[in-house]
Amino acid sequence: MSKIGLVFLCAFLILPAFFADAKKTRLTDNPLYGVTTTSPEAFLGYPLGERLLRHDQINYYLKQIASENPRVSIENTGQSHEARQQLTAVITSSANQAKLDEILAQRQQVKYQGEQQGPMVIWLAYSIHGDESSGAHSALKLSHMLATSEEKWVKELLNNAVVLITPTQNPDGFDRFSTWANGYAGKVAVSDPNHKEHKQGWPSGRSNHYLADLNRDWLFLRHPESQGRVALFHRWQPHYVGDFHEMGHNQTYFFQPGVPERTHPLTSKANQKITTKLAAYHQAELDDKKQRYFSRQLFDDFFYGKGSTYPDINGAVGVLFEQASARGQQQDSVNGLVTFQEAIDNQYATSISSLKGALALRSELEEYQADFFKNKHQKAVKKKPRQAGLLLSADNDSGRIDALTALLSQHKIEYYYLTHTLSQGGLDFAVNNSIFIPNKQAQSSLLEAMFDDRTEYIDPTFYDISTWNLQYAFGLTLRRNVKLELSVLSQTPPALTPASFSTGAVALLIDWRQSQATLLLQQLLEQDILVKFAAKPFSMQVKNKDLDFVAGTLQIPLKQDGYKASELSKLVAQLANKLKVDVVAVNTSAASSGIDLGSPDFELIKPIKPLLISGKGTSTSEVGQLWYYLDNVLGVATTLVDINQLASIKLSDYSHVLLADGRYQTLDERFARKLGQFTSEGGVVIAQKGALNWLEKSNLLKNNLRSDRFYKQLFDAEGLTFDEKSAFKAKQAIGGAILELKLDPSHPINFGLNGDRLPILKNKVIGFSQTNGPFSVAAKYTSKPLLSGYLAQEYQSSFSNSPAIIVESRNKGAVVAIADNLLFRNIWLGSEKVYANALYFIPALN
Q: For tag attachment on the chain, is the N or C end more exposed, with fewer CB atoms within 10 Å?
């Protein structure tokens, strides 16, 4: 054979291999012939999964393929706390890409017009827990496949559907974990579970910047990651949502349905029927890989604040996936070796099964969504003169109403403002702090879920909380099924009157019940402005009328060193207008009743400098909630100190030491003495839940605690069969129930709270047994404490009338002991004032 012939023969033999390889990255279907799309391996320069990716690498890859491939575009849903972009790949046919605006308009029709048009929308979302990273990696593999595949089913899918792929829903936690795992991964993979690669430091990558579990924030929307995610949901109104997670390394693989008896009653049987049908596709895909799996166990479908359940109450079908986690490259388990690559492959497999299943069940998914919004959309809800709905008020505090309306708006729930004061059931609902929410609207199901107050359940086992009623979380007065004329309602908030004060004023007074008054106070203190608070109620004559002022009212004397009265008035007015805080100017120090403005019962408020204990042994989530409150709500510079560094810290440099829930087993007697001296010299300790055990053990808490050992003795376990033990254990758990406290309104820790009742969320078995001294108990559980959710009768009886908040004096300082977390997930706005009082008021009274 000639050399030329040999060359042609070699070329002929090579060409099939070349085209086989090119087929993975080149599209040959018209009009996309010649398009080259970079694979994850080519982009990274190494095989996907060889090391854990950073969030920026994932974002750059999405941008890369979007710039190369007409099937792919990008949506940016905002930034994380640490300013990382949150990107979602939008993958569909090039024809659909050209008319995305039209498709988005069609997606709103089903909710608001009752019409189901356009392509189906499938949203696959991964790694909302930052240390569950296999999903994010599989998302890149899936994105490339959808962008380049010429398989018949993929073409059909992209012609008839828009696929949204969000690789990382928790950018900050994701990078925290990747840095940790990569930093301790050697060239030789270590599968020993004790290896540092698999044992994260504190905090782990599960949570976001403020240490929040973002998969518990879909309803509450306290964090920008969640806000962007929910905005994306309502923008696209998907039919199907896949929610991809990891679980303990000794498990296999889970997909829903979850435990049938633990599905929320508001989730329809039709929803669960489709979930079951989809499961057949996951089974087939995993069976083909010989990957073991399970369903209908461990996980429920109850709390609507999670990625797999929020869709269920918003017209979509959400499905949870859980992969055994390697927490690094590989880890030994009871089921054999768990590898990161295998985890990626499994997540990819169920992503494929999700797409195939949704495509096959398209008509059922569309019919389900249409039925979900049937008779709820605007065309069906006739604009009758009178409509029934919820009438809500945050007494004396427009700030909590503003926070509620902001939340409702993000969830696309319709609401109205009042145009004049209304009376219902003997209570007045004022214009500036009340709203009306009609029952009949597109989002009526979600509205019902947000204010659900049931207390009875088929199965009292909860993967998370059993209730989340926003009436109690926001501390609202609520009247249900109130019928109002539309003429008394407005879609725009009432106009605010700008604050301005006469030159004759001697002092400015601020009602402490306003939630934004705390931020205003902090900003005044930072500018060295003297502020006092009233330890007792009083009345003043203002514009020829007597006005009552409650205990806790702030006073800003206008005669102060370093400020002219006019300058100070102007400064306070600017802050008050910015923060929407009502300020009253008075022209005399003489009270018409009660204490005068110059009374010693007006206590000086000192600037605060809090220290928050963090680190291993403390509750990550509750440390984060305290930090979020201090930093975001109060605007206080907060020092976080690792528990192992406390020995070297000079506590006298701080005004407060805060202890979240935790075990604190590493703190020794030496630090206990140090903390005792701190309180004796004027410092304040604020401690909650598990931290109280350490305080009691260290003789820093005089009142005796009741721990879980005490309460579990209340339950009769005699005669239980083996099968009944699981249900018995669930009964002994407190899965997040809302209880009611009876307050001592005269106690400074309760200033600014309305009335003598306070709803709180309880999720830990702990309480007080007795009190030493009649003035230390600030709040008790009521005689019938359960308001909403599940709480075993044994607990209800035992907590009845027992202390919940205790303040113990220590010479010049104090210990504030709280049995519960009054900031729960930073949505419990109705009780967060207790912490402000502990920070600003308690030091002055000790």
A: N
- For residues 268 and 630, what is the distance between their CA atoms, to the nearest angstrom? 41
Which residues are 393's β-sheet partners? 434, 477
Q: Is the pLDDT of residue 318 over 50?
A: yes
Bridge-based pairing state of the strands 532-534 and 583-586: unpaired
Report the chain's terminal Cα–Cα distance, integer Å: 104
Is residue 654 pLDDT above 70, yes or no?
A: yes
Q: What angle, 0 to 180 degrees and rounded to 10, lies between the N-to-C axes of helices 224-236 and 100-112?
A: 90
Q: Measured between alpha carbons, how far is 747 from 749 in angstroms, rounded to an integer? A: 5
| Spatial separation of the C-alpha atoms in residues 529 and 306, rounded to whole Å | 44
| The pLDDT of residue 841 | 97
DSSP secondary structure string, 116-172? Answer: --S-EEEEEEE-SSTT-THHHHHHHHHHHHHHH---HHHHHHHHHEEEEEES-S-HH
Q: Which residues contact 288 (CB under 8 A, 6 or more apart)?
A: 349
Indicate the helix (H) or strand (E) that contains 804: strand 803-810
Residue 32, pLDDT above cutoff 70: no
Q: What separation in angstroms does the CA of 620 have from each of 122, 212, 582, 612, 659?
A: 33, 8, 36, 12, 11
Quick one: how far is CA 96 from the chain centroid?
Answer: 34
Instruction: Give CA separation, 808 vs 40, 248, 271, 771, in Å.
Output: 60, 42, 52, 10
pLDDT for position 581: 96
Confidence check: pLDDT of 18 > 60: no
Q: List Cα–Cα distances, 806 to 505, 701, 742, 772, in angstroms.
A: 39, 10, 13, 10
> Two tokens at 412?
């696309």
Query: How crowded is the C-beta side of 256, counted as CA atoms within 13 Å?
Result: 30
Helices 362-373 and 100-112 cross at an angle (nearest 10°) of 50
How many whole angstroms separate alpha carbon 590 and alpha carbon 598?
8
In the prediction, which pLDDT does 3 show?
41
Which helix (H) or strand (E) covers residue 59, if one does?
Answer: helix 55-68
Q: In this predicted structure, what is the pLDDT of residue 772?
A: 61
Q: Exposure of 455 by Cβ count < 10 A (0-12 exposed, 13-18 middle, 19+ buried)?
A: middle
Q: Of 518, 556, 517, 550, which is closest to residue 535 (Cα–Cα)?
A: 550
The answer to whether 137 and 50 have CB atoms below 8 angstroms apart is: no
In contact, 718 and 689? CB cutoff 8 Å: no
Q: What's the pLDDT tens digit per position in 391-433?
A: 999 988 999 999 999 999 999 999 999 999 999 988 999 999 9
Angle, helices 55-68 vs 171-183, to 10°: value is 110
Interacting residues of 94 by C-beta distance below 8 A, sequence separation 6+: 31, 32, 70, 71
Q: Are 759 and 830 in contact (CB under 8 A)?
A: yes
The tokens of 88 are what? 């979602």
User: In whole angstroms, what is the distance from residue 781 CA to residue 791 CA?
Assistant: 13
Name the one residue in this structure whose structure tokens are 């403020």: 210
**H-helix or E-strand spanning residue 523:** helix 517-526
What are the angstrom distances between the C-alpha of 653 and each of 202, 609, 627, 639, 788? Answer: 25, 8, 19, 11, 42
Q: Determine contact, residues 400/471, Cβ cutoff 8 Å.
A: no
Interior/surface letters 435-451, b for 16+ CB within 10 angstroms, e for the rest: bbbbbbbbbbbbbebbb
Q: In which band, very low, low, confident or very high, does the pLDDT at 343 lie, cut at 50, 70 and 90?
A: very high
Note the residue count of the chain.
846
**CB contact at 8 A, 821 and 690:** no
Separation between Cα atoms, residue 795 and residue 333, nearest integer Å: 38
At 369, give phi and psi (nearest 5°).
Answer: -65, -40
Mean pLDDT of 288-293: 97
Angle, helices 134-148/340-360, rounded to nearest 10 degrees: 50
> How many other C-beta atoms lie within 10 A of the C-beta of residue 401?
23
